[in-house]
Amino acid sequence: MTDAPRRRPGRPKDPARRAAMLQAARMAFAENGYAGASLASLAERIGLTKAAVLHHFASKDALYKEVLAVTLQSLIEPVTAAALGPGSYVDRLDRLTAAIVSELSEHPASAKLLIREILGRGPFIEGEGGQAVRAGIGAIASFFDAGMREGAFIQQDATQLTWSVIGVHLLSFAANDVDALQPVLPDVHGRREAALRHVRSMTLA
């Protein structure tokens, strides 16, 4: 009889439980930033004691980096799948846009967290996470570049276009819980059609 695979120390047996812990931490870090989210406040948000949090995650830094890694992966994976999938470049562009809007609609805290990390040059972006961010941006730029070479997209700087598309998506979701802006913020549920129009206007002749 073969031995059962060994579980990494501190990792919950239930993946759904760990995902819930990471989601609670993501919201806390998005609201308060890395420096502003104390271990005590994180533990309260997650619903555990500080000792229990440190049982599951070696440190606040380890928790933060895993939250960022999971957040980034949840965006990069569907975007990459859309870009590399079947169909015309326009079809894939629409699926790529819809994938981003769907993820950010479900987890708007992700947008705020990513903006905080990028602008604040936090421990994730300044470490190994920076490579993952660059790879994700590079993958989208490569998709746009290939579409330009095929004549599907307007000829322009693919990297600049990528950042413009990122801006279309991130800002409105990052600001969605700012009370002072509620009268003028766009309806989150209407962002999909608006984003499709804006991204298409930047890429298609």
Give a short synopsis of this structure.
The chain has helices at residues 15-36, 39-46, 50-56, 60-84, 89-106, 109-120, 129-149, 158-174, 191-203. It has 205 residues and is mainly α.
Q: How would you describe the overall organization of this protein?
A:
The chain has 205 residues and is mainly α. 70% of the residues lie in helices and 0% in strands. The chain is built from nine helices and no strands. Helix 7 (129-149) crosses helix 8 (158-174) and helix 8 (158-174) packs antiparallel against helix 9. The termini are far apart. The model is unreliable at 1-7 (pLDDT under 50).
Features:
205 residues, mainly alpha, 9 helices, disordered N terminus
Any chance you could write out the topology, listing elements then pairs?
Blueprint: H1 15-36, H2 39-46, H3 50-56, H4 60-84, H5 89-106, H6 109-120, H7 129-149, H8 158-174, H9 191-203
Helix pairs in contact: 1-2, 1-4, 1-6, 4-5, 4-7, 5-9, 6-8, 7-8, 8-9
Class by alpha and beta content: mainly alpha
Number of strands: 0
Number of helices: 9
Rg value: 19 Å
Low-pLDDT stretches are 1-7
User: So what's the oligomer here?
Assistant: single chain
Major pleated sheet: none
SSE sequence, one letter per element: HHHHHHHHH
- Outline: elongated
Task: Write down the overall mean pLDDT.
Answer: 85
Distance between the termini: 63 Å
Estimated helix fraction: 55-70%
Name the beta content range. Answer: under 5%
